[in-house]
Amino acid sequence: MYRRNPIIDQILNIHKAQAEGIISSTSSKLVKKAFTTSWSQLNNGSIDASISSETILFNPDEIEVTIDKWIKDFEVCLEAEEAKFKRIEDPTFSDKMDIINLKTDIEQHVLYEYRDLKRKIGIIDTKFANVARAYRSPLQQALNDITMLYNDINNIDGDFTGFENVSVYVHGIEDTGKNFFESAVEAAYSGDIIVHEKRNGEVEYFVIKKVNGKNEPIKIRLEDVKIHNKDKRLHLVYETEYKNEHRQKTSDDLAEKLIYMGLLNDNTKIDMFAHSYGGRRSFQFAMDYPDHVRSITTIGTPYNKNFLGGTANTFPGIAKDFFNKNATEYSNYLDFNSKNQRNDDGILHSNVYTDMKSEAMIEDIEHLKIANPEAYQKLEEMEITAVAGRDTTTHKYYNEFKGQVEEFVVPDTHDGAVSVNSQHAESLGALINNRLSYDVKGESISKPAHSKEIKNTDFIELIRQINTHYLE
Amino acid sequence: MIVASAGGGRGSYLKYNKKLPDTIGKAIGELEQIFHEVFKQISYFQDQLDHQRGKAASSLRGNLNSHLELMGKSAPVLLNFADVMKSFMAMIELTDEEGSGFIKPTGRAEWQYSLSMERIDEEIKLDATMKEAALSFKSNITNMDELFSSFNEMINLVISETNLPWDDFTSVWAEAQNKVKSIMEETKNHIEKLLKEVKTFVQEIVRLDHMASQLKAV
After folding, report:
1. Residue pair B28/B82 in contact by the 8 Å Cβ criterion
2. A80 touching B (Cβ < 8 Å)
3. The whole model's pTM is what?
4. Is the Cβ of B109 closer than 8 Å to some Cβ of chain A?
5. CATH architecture of the domain with range A158-304+360-469
6. What pLDDT score was predicted for residue B40?
7. Residue A33: how many CB atoms within 10 A of its CB?
8. Could you tell me if B87 lies within 8 Å of chain A, comparing CB atoms?
9. Residues A135-173 pLDDT 10s
10. Quick check: A293 and A382 in contact, CB under 8 A?
11. Which pLDDT score, from 0 to 100, does residue B5 have?
12. Measured between CB atoms, does B146 come within 8 Å of chain A?
């Protein structure tokens, strides 16, 4: 029967005393459990440490450094014992067995357990980090509210305060604001200002001028905007910080941006235009700030659970390799709703793909109805238009049986990514005031009608009409 | 390490006082009580003023309305912030106890609804005299001081008793504290101005009452 070399227990006893010190100074139940279970696996008696201090002090880096030292202690010990063994001129069978057993015990037992302990400490760190991630958004919202009130009381204006009619354009999944910028230019009026907020933090300012009957965006400086006629409309083409960020993250960031610009006030009314998942982002913003949003107009928005989005969430590897979709993209946001989360290596987070695998947004709207009927009523009063793009692409193909070229017309029940029913937000019933359908032609499977919707002439005309309607 | 602890906290360690959720919870209770008391006094005074005519009463009524509007805006904002902090702190403790799920804050939509002017009007019962109303209104100033000091102490405690290394939470607490200080000071100034008007108004009512009783006697 194997008897542990006493040197192992001697070292383990020293480490145990240090471990008890770590547990006491950390005063964390999770840390105590990690050490206790590891020590029971090490067959070195039980850990006896109190966690009665009222303050948790958890320093994972420091604990890891200590465990690394312990690992080093055993590696040095093993080297020394092996060197000692090599110096024996004629080792007996027992000498040989002793060194083999020592090596096995240290490498396959003790060091394995220490590395596992490091892993457990990493998991604890991740668990606490998940908590911080979950409360980041509500804290940002709460701080945004404090800032709004602070600005209101202290009459603090932003550079854009005074614009009463503002259009905000929000793009969809895996996208940028480029297409919306072009459509916003087309749908704007001479003298309107366009602000293009890019993902990299760069902001560009333009004034619209009619040149040969066509709208041209002329680049200007922020200083020029400040003195510009604020009776005109301001267009904000907003690019999300992370391209696949969850709608709540967009709403929080957009609010922060608009507060900074001086546009979340009693006098400014916002008309939102959105494509694809941008519709959910806009809806979230409207739910969060119903006093400030006047209308929402969406096209190609998956209001309901989306098959493609949900599938990409379930099979992110395939989505990435074959369709270049980043279903695991992380944006440091975590939804409280467990149905709206991903777990990637213990890191819990939420993004557009988690949001589309269930009816999370519909549930959020239902919750608002109960939590704040007044806010819900404001949603009801908002002019909401849900436009459905219908793919009417005609594909030509060669029918081998008939020996002739035939045509295949895509059924106009979807836009290549989202069903007409979902785009029309049928599940939101009377909350939607207008349900329109536009025929949109795609190019191929990789460029379906869905990707062409922002530049659709009917949609641009609709934006133009809404922009004009509220100016009158 | 799975998650690099490289946020805005001091170093890469978590510091957390296990008593924080209880302490913040108590502070929220006090804040709610003080806000309710202030709302009650303002609504009460408003109601009494509704029976009075004249320029002074009308001007005072207008100022009270704007004050109530300001309080109606600040109460849900401050309570929501405190409530999110409480849930956050409580969740750290629950995580250490291997709890699952998340402790959801009450929610800003809920706070906005429960502390909206309409709800306050519905819930406050009025039952005193004009003089009592004026007297109780004076205590608003003291209440505002208490309210600010409760909020301030609560944030100070969170700043001194926590270090959250995953994000720059320290800046969030500090920014909130500075802005709330300004909001409170502005609210206090507002009430001080109102108090002066109330004093003049009550003196006028007392003088008129006195004149009326003398006329009756004649």
Report:
1. yes
2. no
3. 0.89
4. yes
5. 3-Layer(aba) Sandwich (3.40)
6. 76
7. 16
8. yes
9. 999 999 999 999 999 999 999 999 999 999 999 999 999
10. yes
11. 42
12. no
Closest-CA distance, A130 to chain B, in angstroms, reads 9
* A289 vs B contacts (CB less than 8 Å): none
Q: Which residues neighbour A100 within 8 Å (Cβ) at sequence distance 6 or greater?
A: none
Query: CB contacts < 8 Å between A and B, how many?
Result: 164
Going by the DSSP 8-state scheme, the letter that residue B214 receives in this structure is H
Q: Is the pLDDT of residue A357 over 50?
A: yes
Residue A54 to chain B, least CA–CA distance (Å): 5
Domain residues of chain A, as ranges? 6-139, 158-304+360-469
CB distance A29–B98 less than 8 Å?
Answer: yes
pLDDT in tens, A412-455: 788 888 999 999 999 999 999 999 999 998 877 677 899 999 99
**Residue carrying the six token digits 């610009």:** A261
Which residues from A are below 8 Å from B1, CB to CB? 60-61, 64, 122, 125
Spatial separation of the C-alpha atoms in residues A433 and A431, rounded to whole Å: 6
* A131: contact with B, CB 8 A cutoff: yes
Q: Is A115 on the interface with B (CB under 8 A)?
A: no
B15:A56 CB<8 A: yes
ipTM of the complex: 0.89
Residue A154 contacts B where some CB pair is shorter than 8 Å: yes
